[in-house]
């Protein structure tokens, strides 16, 4: 596959859950439960989720909440076999397009201080560190970096 050319970003369907559970398990040391993921794959007044579908099925997802004028990203992950092809970037950009259309202005998230690849990924999309939540993650007491960015700036990126 040539970068992200054959990828569709779409609203999740019920049948996507097994792929999302598998990618979550392959991506995080403390994966969310199936029931929690099922809830967060919803699209309603609060939640906005998207999946990336490639030639072999769902290969990534993003889950977020609308909080005032902010899109708060809870979770974004790409199947390890499909990383570095621009799929994460496509997911974040499509979430930004939809959030902007819904009247939101900013994107915010927390990321583990040690998750250097994710931090580089977010920095590449114009997000910047604006604070730290010390000992935020209960599994190992790791700090969370708070990152924010402008949706308008994100939408202007290639
Ligand atoms: C973070 C994550 C979603 C990125 O997805 P991806 O599809 O591989 O990212 P992209 O291919 O769109 O990368 C876009 C840019 O981000 C940066 N980037 C992505 N992964 C990187 C890495 N491992 N190291 C350094 N920079 C990285 C690069 O600048 C990259 O552009 P390039 O490939 O042209 O150099 C993916 O690595 C992942 O699923 N990680 C595990 C889950 C996680 O930690 N999620 C974030 C916390 S919620």
Count of separate structural domains: 1
**SSE-based structural type:** alpha+beta
Question: Under the CATH scheme, which architecture would be assigned?
Answer: 3-Layer(aba) Sandwich
The CATH class is identified as Alpha Beta
Number of strands: 7
Name the ligand types. Answer: coenzyme A
Protein architecture, described:
With 158 residues, the protein is of the alpha+beta class. It has a single domain (8-156), classed as Gcn5-related N-acetyltransferase (GNAT) (Aminopeptidase), CATH 3.40.630. Helix content is 30%, strand content 32%. It contains 5 helices and 7 strands. A 7-stranded mixed sheet has the order 1-2-3-4-5-7-6. It is globular, with a radius of gyration of 15 Å. The model has no long low-confidence stretch (mean pLDDT 95). Coenzyme A binds next to strand 4, helix 3 and helix 4.
List the helices and strands and how they pair.
Layout: E1 8-10, H1 17-27, H2 34-40, E2 47-54, E3 57-67, E4 70-78, H3 87-101, E5 106-112, H4 116-123, E6 128-133, E7 144-150, H5 151-156
Parallel strand pairs: 4-5
Antiparallel strand pairs: 1-2, 2-3, 3-4, 5-7, 6-7
Residues 27, 75-78, 83-89, 111, 115, 117-118, 120-121, 124 line the site of coenzyme A.
């Amino acid at each position: 596959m040539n970068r992200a050319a054959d990828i569709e970003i779409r609203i999740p369907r019920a049948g996507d859950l097994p792929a999302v559970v598998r990618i979550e398990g392959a991506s995080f040391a403390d994966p969310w439960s199936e029931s929690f993921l099922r809830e967060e794959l919803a699209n309603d007044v609060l939640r906005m989720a998207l999946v990336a579908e490639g030639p072999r099925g769902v290969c990534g997802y993003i889950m977020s909440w609308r909080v005032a004028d902010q899109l708060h990203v809870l979770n974004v992950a790409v199947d390890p076999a499909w990383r570095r092809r621009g799929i994460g970037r496509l997911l974040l950009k499509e979430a930004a397009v939809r959030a902007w259309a819904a009247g939101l202005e900013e994107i915010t998230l927390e990321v583990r201080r040690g998750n250097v690849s994710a931090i580089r990924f977010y920095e590449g999309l114009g997000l910047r560190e604006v604070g730290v939540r010390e000992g935020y993650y209960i599994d190992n007491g790791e700090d969370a970096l708070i990152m924010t960015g402008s949706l308008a700036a994100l939408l202007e990126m290639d």
